[in-house]
Design a protein that fits this description.
This protein is mainly β. It has helices at residues 2-9, 127-132, 157-161, 174-181, 206-209, 375-382, and strands at residues 76-78, 97-99, 113-117, 123-125, 136-143, 164-173, 189-194, 201-205, 214-219, 222-223, 233-235, 248-254, 269-270, 276-277, 286-291, 302-311, 317-323, 331-332, 334-335, 345-353, 358-366, 396-398, 404-406. It has 2 domains: 82-275, Alpha-Beta Complex (Sulfite Oxidase, Chain A, domain 2); 286-406, Immunoglobulin-like (Sandwich). The chain is globular, with a radius of gyration of 24 Å. It binds the ligand Nc1nc2c(c(=O)[nH]1)N[C@H]1C(S)=C(S)[C@@H](COP(=O)(O)O)O[C@H]1N2 and molybdenum atom (MO). Residues 1-30 have a biased composition (Low complexity).
Length: 409
Amino acid sequence: MVGLAGAAGTALAQQPPGAASASAATPASGNLPPAVPEWTGKPGAPTGGKLYGVPSLYEKDVVRHLRSTDKQYFSSSTRTPLQELDGIITPNGLFYERHHGGVPEIDPAQHRLMVHGLVERPLVFTMEALRRFPSESHIYFLECSGNPSYTAYGKTAAEANGLVSCAEWTGVPLKTVLEEAGLKKDAKWIIAEGADAAAMNRSIPIEKCLDDAMLVYSQNGERLRPEQGYPVRLLLPGYEGNMSIKWLRRLHVVAEPAYTREETSKYTDLMPDGKARKFSFYMEAKSIITAPSGMQRLPGPGFCEIRGIAWSGHGKITRVDVSVDNGQTWQEARLQDPVLTRAITRFRLPWRWDGSPAVIMSRATDETGYVQPALEDLLAVRGPNYFYHNNAMTPWRIAESGEVTNARL
Ligand SMILES: Nc1nc2c(c(=O)[nH]1)N[C@H]1C(S)=C(S)[C@@H](COP(=O)(O)O)O[C@H]1N2
Ligand SMILES: [Mo]
């Protein structure tokens, strides 16, 4: 009770739900106070038993979510278990994956990045050569623009919105490499292409390439994981994930976009007037409550900190509002520092659940003044064919039993 006594005496008039009290201790376990737990009574596992560390075996269920309907795994995705994470950084092993042709195993010694087209000096870089350039590190989110499609609302936060993650990326500003090659006057777009079996390619406007685009080789301090594009990927902060080409092998500098499959047939939005929205690039402001969230259970009425994440492709999150009455009234949540440009921002709101059914949701605002829409408002503008770029709010229903479910299901 040491830790709880302080809390109970200050802000919390009541013990947090789920906290163990001395009287509620499980009598079957000999590891609880006042006994000395068995792990204190003997030396632990030897140091160096695991030269690459892994989480506690009690956390074995904290894994990426693979949809059971995904029967093949070459063009597939896995989702970050948002509901299990704290802070703003996604651990590398839990970073979401989206692959169109599987994960290639690339020998970095045999990998090359080619820069050609409308440049003064066509260049081919080894990984060693790329790493000699002045480097930078930045924390940015990455989100798939299919996160989620309107038809695919999931039970958990991962299933509903887990195609978003956030990491500290290290690499070379793309601008530096382009300056080395020397852009010709007509250089307006760059077609980036991957070395995977999908040879995925996208046209990137030159303004973005000369702004904050990065050639990334490290993620959260270690080399990129194969799933994230080892040994080098493009990272376009705030843009839809699809454009951040992994396993990057080619940058073709051109005057016009290529209108590739991924920017015409896919990742475009068919609007009610029959025209398709294309080259929308930026992911708009979004947020989701990760706790309490779908498939979790409130142990009983009382104090409950509502926690979640917010992000915007257009810059910083300036505000997150939370409703606990299905959108009728809103309270401003507290944003956790650091609040970074194009990174995930953590928000929290202290709440006291009175035990009656409730629908909770969050609404993000970014530095452009843009406010995250409700699904109904988004659909009113974008129509029934709309599929990608869904940044609507996610409402969670809390039943009297404390059970939390997706209010849309
Ligand atoms: N070469 C290549 N790059 C790619 C892809 C791919 O299949 N091949 N998938 C894209 C898509 S759709 C997304 S959302 C992001 C996913 O990046 P991640 O797997 O590191 O999360 O990579 C993009 N870059
Ligand atoms: Mo994607």
